[in-house]
Description:
Blueprint lengths: L3 E7 L1 E4 L12 E4 L2 E3 L5 E3 L9 E7 L4 E6 L6 E5 L12 E6 L26 E6 L5 E6 L9 E6 L19 E3 L25 E2 L5 E3 L12 E3 L10 E2 L7 E6 L5 E5 L4 E5 L32 E5 L9 E10 L9 H4 L1 E6 L5 E7 L10 E4 L5 E5 L9 E10 L2 E11 L10 E6 L3 H5 L3 E6 L1 E4 L6 E4 L1
Antiparallel strand pairs: 1-6, 2-3, 4-5, 6-7, 7-8, 8-9, 10-11, 11-12, 12-13, 14-15, 15-16, 16-17, 18-19, 19-20, 21-22, 21-32, 22-28, 23-24, 23-29, 25-26, 26-27, 27-28, 29-30, 31-32
Amino acid sequence: MGAFGSGIGWEHLQIFQAPLTESVTPVKTISVDMYKDPTGAIVPLPAGAPPVSIWQFQPVGSGDQVWVTDTPGGPRVLRVTNIDGLEAPTQPPCIDIVLGQNNLQSTRPNKGRGPSGFARDTLGGNGIPLLDFEGNLYVQDNASLGVDGGDTRILRWDAGTVPSSPPSTVFYLLPDSVYGFGGPYNFTFPGSAVNEIAPAPRAPAFDTHGRMVLGGPDPYTGRRFPLVFLNKDQDYEPQLSLGDYVSFPSVSYMDPEGNLYLGDFDWNRVLVYKAPFAQFAAAPQYTPPPLCTVLGAGQTAWRNASVIAAHINDGKYGNDALQITGRFTMATGGFTIDPIANGAQIEVRSATGIPRVRVVLPGGTYKRPGPGWAKNSEGFKYTFTNLRPTGTDGIHSMTVTDRGSGSVSIVIRANRSAFPLLPTDGPLTLTVVLGGSASGAAGECGQATLQRCTSNRARTGLTCRY
């Protein structure tokens, strides 16, 4: 399962019928010059949009869709659908998902914010798309635009996160996790744990048993041995290194029998490993758990619950404002909340199930400028503060108040953020977890659907209430 690249970039894809023979001609040539407008119509790219120049591509499933990386540099990844006409037989292929940019006109790395501006919703360069055997999408990203890789990471979108057939082109799709610096949810690198193994991942390959091999890390400095993740669904740091020294890893692949092929660009060779992981047990089948697993009676938001977003969809990046309020009755009434120890999670999904807000607020005691938590002298009110909220996707404060008998109220505020909410996203589903996945499984969470949604006349704001 690998991505294939043209090396210089082309404005079309050619499809050939297997098995290949000499002088074979393509059975179809695909141009990437159409998209789905907000009404769902398939139309040419909007005015000012540069042509798509294909550098890397990864077919999906039976071939009716393909992920492509755009050049120069790969600061966006696009999915092209309807290649075989299965979705709309009388319509041409079109772009239905754009990763890394707000619109089809922009191709600037990190949305124009420079080498230090990478975040959860940006791509810096490379942008190599790959799919594992379960259909999860991985994009290798040269986040800091450094020479030959720089600070490289791999962003992952779970198969259930990517819509199969959105009604119009989706420009905002937040990844579920990241392999690289800082663990699965640290999308901006600062705050890495002490002595953490922080690989610069390159050229991933997957087998059918949940394992992943990276051809990194850096081609010039540091350890240059292939890195092994025995369970890619729960391990975000490598457990093993293979014994062969690799100068510049370029391409990797694992076939269905578990044999590993690792390309080495500088030394012009391909390393072949015959079933190198046969002695290890297969990773268990992975199903992404819902944030809030146990929903008890009455475990919904009270009528004061709301999501209010401003300055969205206005063509300006990084000026969104967000306020979330709610009051929940937890399933485990009478528990002792402790966000200082466990942190919190917030998720907002659109009516079509696309995650628009997905933020993990870390635990820890507040020390200026944050992030961290403080509690009042009575011990029933906790306040999260982050004066430099880049690492928490713009959320600078959250207040959690224990009302007794399992009732908890929350207030969340964010500004200078870039949440991909759209004025047409309602009704919204709001989920708040006090802690991590174990807390959500124990019912220390609340969830509600906010049905009453309105937008302003300029379509730059969205208000949804319970």
